[in-house]
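[Discussion] Sanity-checking designs against the backbone

I'm trying to build intuition for which residues belong where. Below is a structure token string of 313 positions. I'd appreciate it if someone posts a full sequence so I can compare it with mine line by line.
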């Protein structure tokens, strides 16, 4: 039997539509997504393949929020660059509703907090790859999703959300320090996401020299910035995290193709500004040098510009 909980997912791309599909089996879901996906889902349904199981789903999807709707949770899964615009557009739904960021990078929760004081941070390290407008392949998973009241703590609402995800078949846990978890995921993304895009390879190819030496420098810089931010991670040193990345996270996500690579391949702007770019910006504020991260940002911006120039008539 389905719960009477109602969930609105905003900016639903590969992550949001996959989460919407799974949650639709246990509660009422509406996903706001691109027109071509909404049309395809309405006509043929939505399909998932991969480690979350192979199945077809039916759920409500459109390019806007249905009028006079009521929701218990709003989950934002858009690219980070779109967070503020989505919050402004949907402010009436967000204002009095527990609003979850399930996005990449640093700064989304702070943006959402301008529109509501009921912010829940979310972290998911799972690989989603488009197959067509209404089909996603879930390729890899490096651990459970985590949710916590931002910037720290848990409550009944976070507990209910975690229970809902687990019931839907998405492994999830509560986090009493979600800010640290978000920075932990950003370390992973800084290390692998842009290099995977620049080199055009799955993550498993990045574990050998010389790419691993570059990863080491990126992580060392990011770790120093995180320390300057006053965030305590589960790893005491950058070298300790690098060992975890090499021995645990990299093998678990070896087959995954970077989300930045997928964005560039589809002619879209990446989230580099909220990932390595966030490290550079925070480093500048703290007087912490970040030359490797800054160079990676420049390389991704160059790849983006090449794609845009090719698309021009």
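Best answer:
Here's mine. Compare freely.
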């Amino acid at each position: 039997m389905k719960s009477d909980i109602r969930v609105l997912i905003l900016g639903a791309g590969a992550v949001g539509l996959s989460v919407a599909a799974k949650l639709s089996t246990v509660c009422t879901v509406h996903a706001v997504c691109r027109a071509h996906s909404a049309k395809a889902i309405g006509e043929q349904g939505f399909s998932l393949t991969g480690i979350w199981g192979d199945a077809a789903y039916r759920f409500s999807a459109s390019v806007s929020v249905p009028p006079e709707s009521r929701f218990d949770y709003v989950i934002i899964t858009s690219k980070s660059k779109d967070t503020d615009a989505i919050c402004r557009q949907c402010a009436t739904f967000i204002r009095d509703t527990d609003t979850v960021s399930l996005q990449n990078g640093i700064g989304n929760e702070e943006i959402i907090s301008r529109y509501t004081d009921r912010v829940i941070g979310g972290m998911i390290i799972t690989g989603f790859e488009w197959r067509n407008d209404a089909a996603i392949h879930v390729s890899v998973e490096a651990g459970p999703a985590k949710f916590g009241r931002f910037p720290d703590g848990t409550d009944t609402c976070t507990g209910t959300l975690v229970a809902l995800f687990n019931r839907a078949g998405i492994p999830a846990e509560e986090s009493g320090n979600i800010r640290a978890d978000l920075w932990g995921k950003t370390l992973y993304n800084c290390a692998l996401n842009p290099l995977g895009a620049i080199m055009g390879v799955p993550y498993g190819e990045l574990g050998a020299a010389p790419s691993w030496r570059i990863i080491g420098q990126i992580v060392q810089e990011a770790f120093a910035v995180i320390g300057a931010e006053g965030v305590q991670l589960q790893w005491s040193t950058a070298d300790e995290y690098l060992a975890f990345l090499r021995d645990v996270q990299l093998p678990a996500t070896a087959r995954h193709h970077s989300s930045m690579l997928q964005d560039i391949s589809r002619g879209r702007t990446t989230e580099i500004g909220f990932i390595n770019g966030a490290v550079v910006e925070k480093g500048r504020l703290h007087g912490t040098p970040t030359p490797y991260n800054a160079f990676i940002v420049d390389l991704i911006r160059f790849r983006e510009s090449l794609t845009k120039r090719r698309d021009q008539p």
